[in-house]
What we know:
The protein has two helices and four strands; from the N terminus they run αββββα. It is α+β, with helices and mostly antiparallel strands.
Amino acid sequence: xxxxxxxxxxxxxxxxxxxxxxxxxxxxxxxxxxxxxxxxxxxxxxxxxxxxxxxxxxxxxxxxxxxxxxxxxxxxxxxxxxxxxxxxxxxxxxxxxxxxxxxxxxxxxxxxxxxxxxxx
Length: 120
């Protein structure tokens, strides 16, 4: 009897804690990327300021055939949005310029003629 009261009390506090973090979503966009889904949500805090959450949800398969979802979140507050956006855009530009430079480089085996045999 004592043990069931402790369990129900723990469940009560666990559910109460979960409800306190749920704030209504004002705007949302999602991106599917293979086994991952990214959610970009705009929410309003209790004080009335806007913030953004970026959530990554990944489906992970277990060996027994079952699966579960792993969630990672980033909370981005209004006062940090400009700094975040600047750095995010710099990273995107770097990746795009790196990909174009990698694609324009010749591969190491392109110096050989198709008919030429390699002596190893």
